[in-house]
């Protein structure tokens, strides 16, 4: 069993210290105050973005509404014309799909702002006795993971190919939050989630050195919505010291 109480405590201390600094001026001029932007963000960013969004609004006066889902679903929504000002994906390939298929929708070059790595999560007590990546190949193991077209699923498939260990998931989910929910509820013996997902979740974790070799890089881009300057201000804030600090405190890696 390997819990991360220290990581959670560190995140709490960091968030507290960042709140004390919220009065400082950050990216975004006073002329943008009162605008409201919509940010489409990968599900794995929900905890971090809620904190970053609060700090951003305090500093700039720009309101933010978040919509979380799997990166592939968000990209599809943007391509279908869903109104959004910022797209933040959990990998570069999904972002590139939007840039390639509809370059007129992306105002500026996407910016990388964090990385993440998969880890094995089990329900408390690890009833199936999972100790390694190789154990996930057991036909009797109820494994849950993301679908291959989702960044977390694509990462799992790359690790699977690199190791030669064949996985037999009983369920493939559209986003990592659904994978974690099934593990927490005891509906699976193990699940492949991001390291950042287990900071506050009541699960046991199993080290996965094989996963470290495959990192996903998160990217954000302003879209051709009604508030392009406010969208740029949000991304500037995201990659600023305060935004990066929140992300690192919650277990994301830097770029």
UniProtKB/TrEMBL annotation:
GO MF terms held by the record: metal ion binding; molybdate ion binding
Entry keywords, A to Z: Metal-binding, Molybdenum, Signal
Record-listed molybdate binding positions: 44, 71, 176, 194
Signal peptide extent: 1-22
GO BP, one annotated term: molybdate ion transport
PROSITE patterns: PROKAR_LIPOPROTEIN
Family stated for the protein in its record: Belongs to the bacterial solute-binding protein ModA family.
Name recorded for this polypeptide: Molybdate ABC transporter substrate-binding protein
Lineage of producing organism: Bacteria, Bacillati, Actinomycetota, Actinomycetes, Micrococcales
